[in-house]
């Protein structure tokens, strides 16, 4: 049970930590350039059984590496902040790959400076699933000895199920992650989809369920977290963290 965006705001921090205290959230990924990162870091000691990873960012807020303001200019806006989905719209050259590596190193180092050793990678707005960035992820794995990562989503409800061609590309991407040495869960999806599709029979031995506590107005996900969602399944589950993967 991974909560994204820890460190983005005080309200999100509070919602995530409340879920961890109630033992319905077991993991979170931290936004190194989030406004409430330091406040989040001060609370991690309360949750020794939870895992805390890095929420690699190329889509929002200011870069952390001073060189990024120059080297990543094509994906920055006029305020020198990451410009949303621009990373998916530009040509990713070798020069840009090196700049992204430096920026992501700075983001990881920010957590390490705060006494946090990240347990796993994922990406803000899923930027870690951009295929051209696999060499950067491999270089980060080697430098920081982090070998666990969120895979590309592979469980969907019918209304949002992608075309077969995209599903095939996702399968190839997930295979590539494992081939270069990363460890992943067998399933990755969001909490609501999992409960809706897998209430009767488990789809695989391990699954990562993504949540965003505090990020949206009260929705179905928040209700499931409050109601202790495992009770809605017809089988028993063990809630683990990336430490246990």
Briefly characterize the structure.
The protein is of the alpha/beta class and 245 residues long.
Walk me through the structure:
- The structure is a single chain.
- By secondary structure, this protein is an alpha/beta fold.
- It has helices at about 10-20, 35-40, 70, 95-115, 135-145, 165-180, 190-195, 220-225; strands at about 1-5, 25-30, 50-55, 120-125, 185-190, 205-210.
- The mean pLDDT is about 95.
- It has a six-stranded parallel beta sheet.
- Helix 4 (about 95-115) packs parallel to helix 5.
- It is built from eight helices and six strands; from the N terminus they run βαβαβααβααβαβα.
As a percent range, the share of strand residues is: 5-15%
Q: For the report, how would you describe the main beta sheet?
A: 6 strands, parallel
CATH third-tier fold name: TIM Barrel
CATH class: Alpha Beta
Cα gyration radius (Å): 18 Å
Query: Any idea how many domains?
Result: 1
**Poorly predicted ranges (pLDDT <50, ≥5 residues)?**
none
Structural class: alpha/beta
- Mean pLDDT across every amino acid position: 96
Order of helices and strands: EHEHEHHEHHEHEH
**Portion of residues in helices?**
25-40%
Distance between the termini: 12 Å
SS element count, helices: 8
Strand line-up in the sheet with most strands: 4-3-2-1-6-5
What is the fourth-level CATH superfamily? Glycoside hydrolase/deacetylase
């Amino acid at each position: 049970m991974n909560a994204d965006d820890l460190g983005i705001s005080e309200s999100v921090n509070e919602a995530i930590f409340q879920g961890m205290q109630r033992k319905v959230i077991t993991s979170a990924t931290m936004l190194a350039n989030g406004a409430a990162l330091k406040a989040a870091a001060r609370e991690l000691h309360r949750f020794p059984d939870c895992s805390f990873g890095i929420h690699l960012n190329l889509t929002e807020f200011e870069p952390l590496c001073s060189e990024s303001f120059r080297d990543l200019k094509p994906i920055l806006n006029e305020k020198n902040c990451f410009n949303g989905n621009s990373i998916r719209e530009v040509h990713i050259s070798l020069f840009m790959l090196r700049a992204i590596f430096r920026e992501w190193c700075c983001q990881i180092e920010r957590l390490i400076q705060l006494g946090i050793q990240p347990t796993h990678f994922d990406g803000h707005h899923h930027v870690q699933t951009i295929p051209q960035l696999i060499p950067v992820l491999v270089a980060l794995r080697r430098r920081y000895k982090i070998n666990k990562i969120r895979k590309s989503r592979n469980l969907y409800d019918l209304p949002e199920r992608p075309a077969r061609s995209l599903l095939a590309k996702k399968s190839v991407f997930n295979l590539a992650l494992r081939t270069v040495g990363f460890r992943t869960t067998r399933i990755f999806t969001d909490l609501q989809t999992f409960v809706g599709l897998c209430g009767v029979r488990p789809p695989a031995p391990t699954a990562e369920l993504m949540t965003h506590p505090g990020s949206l107005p009260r929705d179905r996900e928040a209700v499931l977290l409050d109601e202790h969602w495992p009770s809605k399944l017809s089988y028993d589950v063990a809630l683990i963290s990336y430490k246990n993967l």
